[in-house]
């Protein structure tokens, strides 16, 4: 399946990745706190496991960086 | 004590976390500054290096309150989206509303800032708008219910210090919420000056991160904020046109 993640098109295995949680695991983020938005809908961490990812989805994965 | 919303802080210095050259130096600067509130920006994760070390991971989140900003937003809609993303982290409910109206001066757009504040207040955020030193805007935002106002001393990153103390003083005089002077602070004297004017706090970033020795400057800023606050509380002497001798005028042996 093709997803658009942070503006980049990525081809992912739709058998291995069916939820947002799977997607985050596959990205190997370690301990990072990230927030995910799927098709403009912001997800709480608790929603990651139950939120499906589907072909054509637009995903934003953001985090806190240094800023003033 | 500085009170924002229902939270109380001992330190009146708020520190930005941007543009530090090195995470170790940054950690030490934050430590010696004794700040309790740190600002952050919300950005896309770099997918080609998702495990890249990040300052937030080093922080003991029990000791610091996070104040994410909406930097990058040019209108209310974008600011609200960034604020919601920040809150969804579960790490904070404060937001620095920053809606930039012009890329050269980085001055905030008052109308879009206003709209964003209105929406975010309704959603239960603790809202701290970054604004110009506009007396009426500060008043109007306060009426809207913001939890603090953050007028700039001068444009972001310029280090020009306080260019309109007159306006800042009036904003402070009429404020019923904390006034935090944000942006444009260049040196400790600027931070002390802001506090002497009666500001409740100072938010700065580049003045520390860009200093030759950020750790030493962080300490200098801590002391400047404390000195300025003490001076304000002590009440300074009036400014006079002519000299007034500090030694007694009576009993002089030369008369």
Please give the order of strands in the largest beta sheet of chain B.
5-4-3-10-9
Oligomer: heterodimer
Profile the largest sheet of chain B: 5 strands, parallel
Order of helices and strands of chain A: EEHEEE
Describe this structure in words.
The complex is a heterodimer of chains A (68) and B (255). In chain A, a hairpin with a 2-residue loop joins strand 3 and strand 4. Chain A is mainly β. Chain A is globular, with a radius of gyration of 12 Å. Chain A has a five-stranded mixed sheet, with no helix packed on it. Chain A starts with a strand and ends with a strand. Chain A contains one helix and five strands; from the N terminus they run E-E-H-E-E-E. Chain B is an alpha/beta fold. Chain B has a single domain, classed as Aldolase class I (TIM Barrel). Helix content of chain B is 37%, strand content 16%. Chain B has nine helices and ten strands. Chain B has a five-stranded parallel sheet. The model of chain B has no long low-confidence stretch (mean pLDDT 95). Strand 5 (58-66) of chain A pairs antiparallel with strand 4 of chain B. Chain B: 1-deoxy-D-xylulose 5-phosphate binds at residues 157, 183-184, 205-206.
Summary of the model, kept short:
Chain A has 68 residues and is mainly beta. Helix content of chain A is 12%, strand content 35%. In chain B, strand 3 (13-16), helix 1 and strand 4 form a beta-alpha-beta unit.
